[in-house]
Amino acid sequence: MLPIRMRKTACLFALLLCAGSLSGCVESPKQTTPSAQKEAQDTTQEAAQDAVQGTTQEAAQDAAQEEAVDTPEDAVDVSYYLNEKALHADPENQLASYQIETAFKGTFRITQSAKAQFYVQDSVAAYARYDYGTMIFDELVSSTGKYVEAGEVIAKVHIDVKESDLTQVRLALTRMEERLSDDRSRYEKEERELEIEAYEIEDFHDRGVALRQREEIKENHKQDIENRTKEIEKTKEQLAKMETAAALKEITAPISGYIRDVGVLVKGRAIPNETMVAVLEPQKSAIVWVNNPDNAFRYGKEVTVTCANTTNEESFTGVVITPSLMSVAEQATDRRACIRLDDECVKYLETAMVDTITAKVNTVEQEDAVMIKAEALEIEEEEFYATVVLENGSFLKKKVLVGGMNGETFWVMEGLKENDRVVVP
């Protein structure tokens, strides 16, 4: 059976032929005047035109019904993307003039890079560093000449922090916070009452005096709260130092290497802060320093270091070891990261002319992530949207949740799945 649209078109064509035949076959009686004959012809043409118009409208309505078949209720008006002729074409042909991106799975990475400065690593010392109490030496685990890995225990120590002292500070901190909360509520109530009393005073001058007094009291309350808040913060810092000291039980090797020397340490005796415990001689290793203002190069992170000149480029793998080489105070002011490389890098740098050294680190790394090219998504009022091609060729505009962008690709956490086709707006 022919489709509805084709049947309507055939009927329309037949009707036009019939109308022409009728106008040509009608024989006018001999007594019919020319004016009557013309009136009959006009009536016939008007009837034909009405029939054509009615048939055309019915065909359009039937075509619209056909277009609505199998279209999801939540599908968007695709005429925004396609012309009317393409709306009912084959899906492959209808997308031919539009760019389509396909969602895919892989490992999503955001990489940060920085220029680096190279030198060959010298011997490195391990220090006794602490912020509270007194460190007591217990035992030397490693001896002179022994090879140790980075992070391996060199010496065992402890800091005398009594549990009763910790409990006392914790209770004092709790009381301070409770009193501050109560006084803040009391101050607010007192200020409201003073304001109400001031506005009840009829005399304009006296009311102004009362309001100024209320502002002075409010400022005193504010200053009192700020001072007590600072005291609470200091108490919290003290408690954190005490807890850290109580947990400090060992001193570890800052790098991998041979212990060249050890400090003069006596069991049961105190070790002054910043005392050298051991000196390690590394296997020949390369070190690069990079600027690290936002702390992207974190301790223990794997880093790719690229050494380049005008004709060649080589990459090596390293590890960030900054906290082992710098004190907390140094890290706060220096804001650099130290990266240890392997022997291959040393050999290369000793024989090659290097113009630039660049270090790269992955600040975000997500495996098995659904990704899409950045240009495939739209941004509306700080929300991300994708126009997905459905199986029946229609389009669905939907909101998606983005986990990150690396300049070329979006990581889509929700809203798209692998192999989804998206129209580029």
Describe the protein in words.
By secondary structure, the protein is α+β, with helices and mostly antiparallel strands. Among the domains are: 4-69; 79-108 and 366-423, conserved putative lor/sdh protein from methanococcus maripaludis s2 fold (Beta Barrel), CATH 2.40.420; 163-247. It contains 8 helices and 20 strands. The chain has helices at 4-25, 34-68, 91-94, 163-199, 204-247, 322-325, 328-334, 343-351, and strands at 100-102, 104-120, 124-128, 135-140, 147-148, 153-159, 250-252, 257-262, 270-271, 275-282, 286-291, 302-308, 313-320, 336-340, 356-373, 378-380, 383-389, 395-405, 409-414, 421-423. The model is unreliable at 1-13, 21-32, 63-91 and 323-328 (pLDDT under 50).
Attribute tags:
single chain, alpha+beta, conserved putative lor/sdh protein from methanococcus maripaludis s2 fold, six-stranded antiparallel barrel, four-stranded antiparallel sheet, flat, disordered N terminus
Give the helices and strands, then pairings.
Elements: H1 4-25, H2 34-68, H3 91-94, E1 100-102, E2 104-120, E3 124-128, E4 135-140, E5 147-148, E6 153-159, H4 163-199, H5 204-247, E7 250-252, E8 257-262, E9 270-271, E10 275-282, E11 286-291, E12 302-308, E13 313-320, H6 322-325, H7 328-334, E14 336-340, H8 343-351, E15 356-373, E16 378-380, E17 383-389, E18 395-405, E19 409-414, E20 421-423
Antiparallel strand pairs: 1-20, 2-11, 2-15, 3-10, 4-6, 4-9, 5-8, 6-7, 8-10, 11-14, 12-13, 12-15, 13-14, 15-19, 16-17, 17-18, 17-20, 18-19
Helix pairs in contact: 1-2, 4-5
